[in-house]
């Protein structure tokens, strides 16, 4: 069953004559609802609007043995409860579990305030519960398969970082960039720094590429492997002699010896050692 993006709206339009007033006490949340948190401030605003104008668009329900399950319109239902309504206008549909699940997820995906983690969780739920591939999810939702794959990668973020994305402190693009840091503790530290200093995605990309990216590690490994054995031996000897990381590079019959220092004290110590070595000779 393929459901178009505007299916919930077509359900309402097609079945306007079947709108019913349902006792709000008999309505239960959709068990397949992927969204667990709702913005309280926006719910309050919607509740105030409902008090003044009523519910302009009926929700969609499925009949159950004990009452009704919400298929589409859980925000309206919650706001109606907050507004003190005892009945709610609804369209009752005969739907399968698969229909309910897919409609609930699609409704959430159409919302502008859905954060990147919730979006990724919705795609994962479609795949797991309906046994779909990334390609099939992409086709149903008119997305590209790489887009779905990239969103799903966010589910590999540690909880601390995922929560920052959920709270809007970081974007989904920030989250995907941080996945280039394989050490989760370092990833969390960088994520918090990015929030503190309000880094753009580009700034974060530059930082991760410079310090932690897998590509950088691979490049260093390749470069190290390409050095002659005797140069690597000299680097180790110099490191032991001066207590600092040393890199020797050669190009076009010329070369450089680089000493790395991390503080002014280390710099002064290195200069002192080198001067002493030179004076003794």
TrEMBL record:
It holds the Pfam family ParB_N. InterPro entries: Chromosome_partition/occlusion (IPR050336), HTH_ParB/Spo0J (IPR041468), ParB/RepB/Spo0J (IPR004437), ParB/Sulfiredoxin_sf (IPR036086), ParB_dimer_C (IPR057240), ParB_N (IPR003115). Its main location: cytoplasm. One of its GO terms (biological process) is chromosome segregation. It comes from Staphylococcus edaphicus. It comes from the Bacteria. This is Chromosome partitioning protein ParB. GO terms for cellular component: chromosome; nucleoid. Belongs to the ParB family. Residues 20-109 form the ParB-like N-terminal domain. It is found in: Cytoplasm, Nucleoid. Keywords: Chromosome partition, DNA-binding. The keyword DNA-binding applies. GO terms for molecular function: DNA binding.
